[in-house]
C-alpha cells in the first residue's frame, strides 16, 4: 500500500549504532545478530576480551558490522570508555541494550552480603550506569535514542532461591520507568523486557533438573520455553521506529508465566 506510515520498513535499523552489554553469549548474542541483520552497527561487550573479539569476528563474517569492547558494567570508568569508543568509531550512539546479568542460587538466609552485592551491582547498578552514560551522549548529540533494559519474569513475581536476582530485576523495571520520565523530553525512550525461561547459560542449572523444568513449563500458558531469537525480536521492536511512542513500559516475553 502506498501513502501510509508503513511505506517505510519500520523495523529497519540501517544507520543505527547500538551497544549491547553481555553480548558474547545467550540473549545478548541473539540481539547482536538480530540488530546486525536489520542494519545496525553493534558494539560487542563482555568481561573477556578474547570472547568479545571472537563473537565480533564471527558476526562480521556473517555480514554484520561490529567492534569488540571489554568492559565491566559495574565500573563507570570502563563503561564511559566503551561509550567513548563507540562514538569515536561510529560517530554516535542510538541504542543502549543493558543486558549483562548474573544470578546466584541460594536461600535468603544463606546468602552473604558479598553475594547479594555481586548480583545487585551487576543486574541493577550496571543497568543504571550503562543507561546513564548512554543518555548523556544521546542528549548531548540530540539523538532520539533507545534504552532497552533486560529485566526478567523474576522481576514481576517472586521466585525461591534467587532473591537478589528478583530484587534487581524488579528494580530494573522501576528504573526504566524513571528513565522514561526523565529522558522523554529529549525524545529518548526507555523500556524493559522481562524474559521467561530461555535455554541459555544462566538458566542451565534449573533446566537440567527434570522436575524443575517440568514445574517451569507447567507455569507457562504456552507450555514451552522461549527461544533466544524470540527475545531478540522483542528487543528489535523496542529499538526500531515501530515502538516510537512506547516508553516506560515492560514487555513480559515469558510465555505467559506471569499472566495469572
From TrEMBL:
InterPro entries: NAD(P)-bd_dom_sf, SDR_fam. GO terms for biological process: bile acid metabolic process. Keywords: Oxidoreductase. It comes from the Bacteria. GO terms for molecular function: oxidoreductase activity, acting on the CH-OH group of donors, NAD or NADP as acceptor. Belongs to the short-chain dehydrogenases/reductases (SDR) family. This is SDR family oxidoreductase. It comes from Enterocloster citroniae.
Amino acid at each position: 500500500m502506498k501513502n501510509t506510515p508503513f511505506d517505510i520498513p519500520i523495523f529497519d535499523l540501517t544507520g543505527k549504532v547500538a551497544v549491547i552489554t553481555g553480548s558474547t553469549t545467550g540473549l545478548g548474542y541473539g540481539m547482536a545478530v538480530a540488530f546486525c541483520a536489520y542494519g545496525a552497527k553493534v558494539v560487542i561487550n563482555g568481561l573477556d576480551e578474547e570472547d568479545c573479539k571472537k563473537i565480533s569476528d564471527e558476526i562480521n563474517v556473517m555480514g554484520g558490522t561490529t567492534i569488540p569492547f571489554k568492559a565491566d558494567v559495574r565500573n563507570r570508568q570502563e563503561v564511559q570508555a566503551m561509550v567513548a569508543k563507540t562514538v569515536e568509531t561510529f560517530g554516535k550512539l542510538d541504542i543502549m541494550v543493558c543486558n549483562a546479568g548474573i544470578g546466584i542460587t541460594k536461600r535468603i538466609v544463606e546468602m552473604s552480603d558479598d553475594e547479594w552485592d555481586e548480583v545487585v551491582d551487576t543486574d541493577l547498578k550496571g543497568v543504571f550506569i550503562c543507561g546513564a552514560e548512554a543518555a548523556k551522549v544521546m542528549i548531548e548529540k540530540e539523538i532520539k535514542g533507545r534504552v532497552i533494559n533486560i529485566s526478567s519474569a523474576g522481576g514481576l513475581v517472586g521466585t525461591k532461591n534467587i532473591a537478589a536476582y528478583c530484587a534487581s530485576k524488579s528494580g530494573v523495571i522501576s528504573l526504566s520507568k524513571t528513565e522514561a520520565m526523565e529522558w522523554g523530553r529529549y525524545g529518548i525512550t526507555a523500556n524493559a523486557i522481562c524474559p521467561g525461561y530461555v535455554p541459555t547459560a544462566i538458566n542451565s542449572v534449573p533446566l537440567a533438573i527434570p522436575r524443575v523444568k517440568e514445574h517451569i513449563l507447567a507455569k507457562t500458558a504456552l507450555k514451552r520455553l522461549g527461544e533466544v531469537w524470540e527475545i531478540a525480536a522483542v528487543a528489535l521492536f523496542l529499538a526500531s521506529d515501530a515502538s516510537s511512542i512506547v516508553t516506560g513500559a515492560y514487555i513480559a516475553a515469558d510465555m505467559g508465566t506471569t499472566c495469572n
